[in-house]
Each structure stands twice: as C-alpha cells, then as structure tokens.
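Each letter names a residue; the fold follows as tokens. Both lines appear below:
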Amino acid sequence: TILTAMLLFCFFRSIGTSGVQPWLFDLIPEHLHARYFSTDMAVINVGGVITLVFCSLTFTWLQPFSAFSAQYSYALLGAALSVVGLSRLPAVPHPESFGAIRILKEGPKLLTRPSNFRRYLMLSLVWIVSGSAVVPFSVYYLKAEAGLSQAVIVLFTAIQSVGGIAGALIMKSRIDRLGIQRSFLIVLGLNLAVYIGWTLFIILTMRNPDLTRHMIYLLPVNYVLLGASGATYFGAHWKYLAYVTENRRRALKVAMHTAVVGLVTGFASILWGLIFKKSGPVPAMNLHAFLAYYVFNILVQLALIPYVRHLKEPDPGILPITHRYAMLRLRILTILPVLRRRNEDEEMEEQPNT
C-alpha cells in the first residue's frame, strides 16, 4: 500500500510539474523573475521550518496514529488552499505539447548530440549524484554512530532551512549581476566548506570518540552552509536551464533533464546505501566508506571548477525557469499580489485617453 501510494504521488507530481513550469514561466512579469525566484526559495525554506516544527510537536504531544492523522490533514488543507489559489491565477497561452513517440524519437538525440544542453546535463548529473547522499546518510550517521538525539537532528535540519533562507535573500539580487559561472563557483566553494567540515568531524570523532561532544558545535555551521549552497544552486540552475533549453523544444528538454537527473539520482542513492552498509548481523555504517565519500566529494568539487569556468554565459535577457516544487509550498502567497498589480496595470493601459 505504501509503495503504491508513493508511486501514485510521484506520478501525479510529475504531471503537475510538467504543467506548472511553462505556465508560471509565462505568467510572472519579466522584470520580476530573478527577485521572485530567490524570494520563492526563501518562502520554501520558511514553509519547511513551519512544517518541521508542526510535525515535531504532533509527535511530541500525540500518539503516532493521531500525529500522522494531523499531519495528513495539514497536507490536505495545504492542497485545498493550493487549488483555490490556482483557480485565481490568469491563464496563459498553451505551450507546445508532445507525446511519448516524440520523446522516444527526439529524446536520445538531445542526450547524445554535443550542445550546451548536454554539457549542462552532464554537470548536473555529476553534481547532484555525488551529493545525493549528504543529507539522508549524514542524518543516519548522527543518530546511529554519533549518538545524537532526534531533537538535536531536527534542530540541525531547521538550521539548514535558515541557511537556505539567508542564501536565497542574499543572492536574489546578485545572481544576474555575478553571472552563472561565478554563482556556480560560489556553490562549489560552499560545498567544499561543507565536505571539509564533515571530513574533519568524522576523522576526529573516529580517533577520539570523546571529542564528539565538542565537535558537535561545528555542525550548525555546516548545515547553514549546506542550506545556503542549495538555495544558490537552484537559483542559478533554473536560470541556466532556461538558457540551454531556449527554443521550440524547451518543454521536451526540461522534461528530459528532470527525468534523467531524477532517475539517476534515485539509483545513486541506493548505490550509496549499499556502499555505506557495514557487513554483520547488526545494522551499522561503514565509517571508512562514509569518510571516503566526503573525500571523494572534495575532489569532485575541485575537478568541476575548470568545467564550470568554461560554461557559456547566458544573455542578460534570458529568463530563469521557476522552481518546480514551489507550487506545493506556499508559492501562491508570493505571486498573487504581483499578478494582481500586473492585471491592474494592464487594464489601465487598455483604457483610451479621454
């Protein structure tokens, strides 16, 4: 039942993603794209903190069944509010549609022919796949190996969201000015700091477990940098993806990029789990493999620096693509006031002078 529910959830979310991206791309005023996207990322992280606190309180105050019931009621309420918000948004011209036959015919060509799209797809695969194990397996490590309580781990997750809020607000007016290369280099620098911090934490606690209670104060810094890195990455990612998909096949290219990266990342997470698993009757983590993973990521970030420096910069007029999941996380609160003002301005322009 759980597997079926998750399968249906992913299926319908993919349908929504395919529809909402081109819609919002045409809907948001051109001069507000950069600021809107960064503000959107900040709102996503605020919603994440609120949801995290709500779920923690329900598990603290209620029995498991009642807690899950409250959380799913909260999710259903959010879905209902999203439907109400969607019904108030104006329509836009329909994008070019494509079916399964066109995907099978043109998809392989997009993945094999040399182009800016394929070059960025390779970068995305290396970047996301190599870092896909950081969040889930670091949480498992802190709980199973470092012995931290669930409350402390939840606090670190909230700190990561705070870092995402700060990173989004700082970069919202700087991504266009810095350019794609510099924005991605900032992400590489933040990632390096995170991976070096985790490497030091694991090495020192392996040599002397008594240092864990002192090294624990390093982790909040790591999680702030991790959140800021994610916010900066997605801000630059959607802007650059708009550039490398700028033609009549944009919808197909965006769908192919999202599908390939999502599929490979899913299999990569399974592979990382098998690598980190320690053989034996008792479930445990192979700390040497986990340490090697962070050293590997440090080398990956260093190797990507020249690759990023050779990316072709988009023209200033290219618009960023909006985040595909934000509609599920309070996007409507940030866009409705803008659209209302936009419609009022258009109505005033259409009235003849008297």
Observations:
- Residues 322-354 have pLDDT under 50 and may be disordered.
- Residues 119 and 311 are 8 Å apart (CA to CA).
